[in-house]
Amino acid sequence: MDNDKCPSLWRIANWWTSHAVENIMANTQACRLFEENQDLLNMFEKFRQYRTKEEQINSMELAEHANNVMNTLDEGIKGLDDLDNFFEYIHQVGASHRRIPGFKVEYFWKIETPFLAAVEATLGDRYTPNVENIYKITIKFILQTLVDGYEKSAKAGANAIST
């Protein structure tokens, strides 16, 4: 990535490590996401039974899903230094959500606040206004790329049907 054109994204791609992802408490992030958005919890048959915060925190299935979400964000952030691969990967992940019954494109944006809260909790005093701004830009960029992949897959499917 040309770090002169996109210095904030270059910086976060270089700061981010798998170790950081482990410390971001993916399970807590998922619990907050589902606490604030019960409609999302209902989309997943295997998660519907977890109504209380305690049940959600103790759920291995929910922890696995949270880890998958965090791994996607991790791969996205680490891939920012190779934008061709970044776009290919994140677009594919966005497109894959077409297979989830009842999924709506706006659901991607619901991860933004829990993600930023988890980063803030993890970084503590190191979560300065500058770092916050960089993470906000980065998560918005990743989420918009997921949306683009989701929407492009619908257009590709419509074009395939019409030809």
From TrEMBL:
Domain of life: Eukaryota
GO molecular function: heme binding; metal ion binding; oxygen binding; oxygen carrier activity
InterPro entries given in the database record: Globin, Globin-like_OT, Globin-like_sf, Globin/Proto
Keywords attached to this entry: Heme, Iron, Metal-binding, Oxygen transport, Transport
Stretches assigned to the Globin domain: 9-151
Family: Belongs to the globin family.
PANTHER family assigned: BLR2807 PROTEIN (PTHR46458), GLOBIN FAMILY PROFILE DOMAIN-CONTAINING PROTEIN (PTHR46458:SF5)
Name recorded for this polypeptide: Jg4540 protein
